[in-house]
Request: fold
Amino acid sequence: MPRKPRKQQRNTALTLSDTRVDRAIRLLELLSSTEDSLVAANEAARQLACTDAQLDEAIELISALADRESGARAVIFRDHGDIVLAGDGAHLTPLRLSLGEGAVLAHVMGSLALDANVRDRLSRALLPLAHTGGDAPLVAGSTSFGTHYPALRRALEGHRRCRISYRSHGETAPRERVVDPLSIDVTGDGAYLLAQDVEKNAPRRYRLERIGRVEVLDEPARSAACAVPAVADSLRASGTAIELEIAPDKPIPAWSGIEQARPLADGSTRFTVRTSSLPWLYDHVLAAGGAMRIIAPADARDGLVSYARSL
Reply:
């Protein structure tokens, strides 16, 4: 009988050790996913749900890594509030699918009714966007900060003007804009850079994952804070209304632009959403694995079929 407490203590110590290793691995994943292997320390602590001291533990653990064959060591350090990964010995090269491939994978996993733990591991390893837990759609409701978030954060903190490459809805290729960053806004359907377009002298909203390049200019941002229309207001003014139906016991997505929802007798729910991008909506419908379908208009339903065949 006296041995049981000691066994519990050993298990607790093992759990704490595993937690530290897991935290260090997730920090490596976060740093390896950015273009310049740099992330703000406060943002890393937020994403890892840890304290600053626990973040230092992860940094210390990564510093002990070395490539077994070449001997190259991990070089990781803090620099003015940022965490920088400079050594080749710790860079990760995870496989990531495209958004279309990820939507198909999520659909297949949903139709196969895989174990939740297996589905979660596959999603973390392969899908281009993090997903919400449980039985929620694997792509819908996720937030992607793109690869240029650290550079944008530096521009915001230093009040610097930026030159960005951005592809708007309907454009086949990105084009350059010079902007004064104002803030970063995270909504239920994505993360956005709120900025003043210098050429147009007007406030604009840019989805982070669609920003292709960021150049922080050696020029101060001159725009004062201004009112940028909320996503929901913009969609009400110009978005296309689509009626959707979601299966019983499935949550309504936390998207901007949802205007009304009504339960049906069979337990399913119909709701209307306004969107400025049908491909974006199609990806979410496919990712729901059959739990969500388009009711109206008919041309949107037909468009989904054509879009799915093109993947």
